[in-house]
Amino acid sequence: MGRNWTSAEIRATFLDYFASNGHLKVPSSSLIPRNDPTVLLTTAGMQQMIPYFLGRETAPAVRLTSAQKCFRTTDIDKVGNERSLTFFEMLGNFSVGDYFKREAIGFAWELLTKVYGLPPERLYLTVHPDDDVAPLYWHEVAGYPDEAITRLEDNWWGPPGASGPCGPDSEIYYDRGPEHGCGRADCRPGCECERFLEIWNLVFMQFYQDAEGARTPLARQNIDTGLGLERLSMVLQGKESVFDTDLFRAIIDRFAELIGASYGRNSNVDTSLRVIADHGRALVFLAADGVLPSNEGRGYIFRRILRRAVRHGKLLGLDNPFLAEAADTVINLMAGHYTELAQRRDQIVEILSHEERKFGQTLSLGLQLLNEVLDDLQKRGEQVVPGEAAFKLYDTHGFPLELTQEVAAERGMLVDIIGFEGAMQRQQERSKQPEVFAREREEETWGQLAERVPPTEFTGYGGTMGASRIVAMIAENTLQDTISAPQIAAVALDQTPFYAESGGQIGDRGTLSSPTGIFEVLDTRRPVPNLIVHYGRMIEGHLRVGSEARAEVNVLRREDTIRNHSATHLLHRALKEVLGEQVQQKGSLVEPERLRFDFNHPRALTVVEVRRIERLVNEWIRNDYHVETAILPLQEALTTGAMHLFGEKYGDQVRVVTMGRSKELCGGTHCHATGQIGIYVTTQETSIAAGIRRIEALTGRAAEEHLIGRTQTLDALAAKLQTSPDALETRLEQVVQDLAAARRRLAQLDREAAREEANQLASAPKMVSGIPVVAAHVSASDDKTLREMGDQIRSRLGSGLVVLAATLENRVAFIVAVTPDLTKRGLNAGKIAAVVGERLGGKGGGRPDSAQGGGKDSEQLPQALQAVTQIVQDSLGLPDYTPES
Ligand code: SER
Q1: In angstroms, what is the span from residue 149 Cα to ligand 1's centroid?
Q2: Which of 60, 262, 334, 426 has its CA 20 to 30 A from that of 730?
Q3: Is the pTM of this model over 0.70?
């Protein structure tokens, strides 16, 4: 291993080696996977190759190579030890239906031993137990005898999502030496101990696995390999841990310097330094690829590791925000290869710093509270942190459950997760909160107050933030001077950017904060015309009447809402243009998630009309009309032809909102220009009353998600049917036809089998009281076949009784048929059916010659059929029996 390899050289050498062997270098794909909605983050280099492996897209070349950014969540909680990472780089070579096992093995061996110069005797191999071919190539290429190769069931790879390509694999391990091992005689690759380090995985992609786990061979055999850059660097740089390589040491050393400590002296300090190094690197790459902190999905993973990093920063005594520093160090280290990091440096630093600041504010308090809870529990000898306590920390202090678990675990305690979830559920029910206010009394109080204070000034047309003064607060139906967490309350300010529910647009949400406390606004309304009131709850500290508060509307939610509001105006105009000027708005609902618009129209819209309306709205969005507002006297406004609601009371002065050809009287908040709406998609057109139709639609982010979701569904369906989305319709028609043909064939086979069974039964009737009787459980699959079998047997018998029963789904059906000569002798099919039906726990009946019935109790069937013999004997012995002359 003579030379000293830097990780950048290792990466470049890998890519160059494969390029010189005919591979096209492709850039890493984003950490947000493109093709698979079931996977949150990219976990392997092969993910961007999946469409090529499956033959759904044409690869730019049949041989490809990449260094891929990967993130795996499996080890998040373990990061801090010497091995585990969340973010890592995977070097890979791929063959799309080109070379297969032999060449893949040959390349890997040559690169490791000849180029990187690893001693062959340190390399160990594993294969899947069913793979008899790979060992032959390992023998040919590397001279390994069969018995030196370990067979491991685990050597099977993929797919990363619910379905996709997969196959057996062969892994290359590096022997770190017996001093790292467990010392057992049978210690081999795959052993739990630290001796053998897996460095490269060669996957022989041969199968497609569907969501149910069924595997079918792929049309072409592919190669997917993954070599961990961090691990290979550790080996080539002769280090004991990935954190000692040049990929991490600069970050670790920078932080060790900041806290005035050295790495490698104190294990607690080392753990925290490693957490910051790994999480810092991961956060930079996630932010660069557009992952933002949130409470779900990949956004939650981001938030979770950021908060974990911040907490370890605190453990190290880093009291000032430090993630910007970490980001800078990571970017300087990695931007040589990942140029997007430098390009987005400002954005990355801003995202990390903002979230760090937000979390930092509550972390210290949360930790203090948690430690108090833990002290208290420990004093009482308890081992389990109650779910309610963990939830309170999460809910009030934004303290992630995982962090509570981690801190508790450090003190040997567990958290009651079920209790946590229960508390979360109760909270969700409670947060449909505004109803807790006894509206009438509250309105009366606001009404009295409105006489004493000036009207609230609405500042929200121009912005979403502003300084205000608290005018009044109500909690528990009474005016209060102070409210404190966790009180539910209603707050009035002298001025506010919060829009109060009106004209179909729902009220804003957000926060009111002062140095003493934070109030979460869950809804905004006007209980009396002059006052805008913020409804919600204190989440921290307290607020006092007369003090200053910073009002901050939840911007994303507001922006989603205004997109829907402006789109409602365009939709209204488009409806008039497509359906006629007689269309009148009958109601609307404008929420962040969607919009709803009700209007008069005598019949359902045709698909063509819906599409024309949609096209028109989208055309106006693209035209990017400036949204203009003007305050005019009502009469003047009406003469401009502005649309308004009949029967609605307007003041003397009205606000007219104009965008392109749309002009409406409206007090709502809107986009600056129609382009901001982004895109409009109709999701439903329904009737809500006679002559009133309802359109539901999405815009902006929601529309985009909807369309992506549809595309993903199409992709998934196409994958299920092993075709491309474009060819899906043809393929589906084929499948439907094939299915119909198969059904016809099956029905034909069923009929043939039924005929055959009927023939056999007819040829061997049982003689009872001198007449032929067939009473049998047959395998007919429906009522019709059962009847046809009965008819067939009856006519074959000429004279006799037929009782046939079949098990159909979850019931037993039966028929009874009697030939005319025997009905005359008193044998009555209807009566027999009544008895059989009753025995089966059901019913039966019909005419003397033909009857039917059914029941649920299939266990009684043998006895019910046996009873037929008795009935025949009894019936033929009836006194009214008149022998035929
Ligand atoms: N897909 C395989 C892995 O992730 C090899 O690239 O290990």
Answers
A1: 20
A2: 60
A3: no
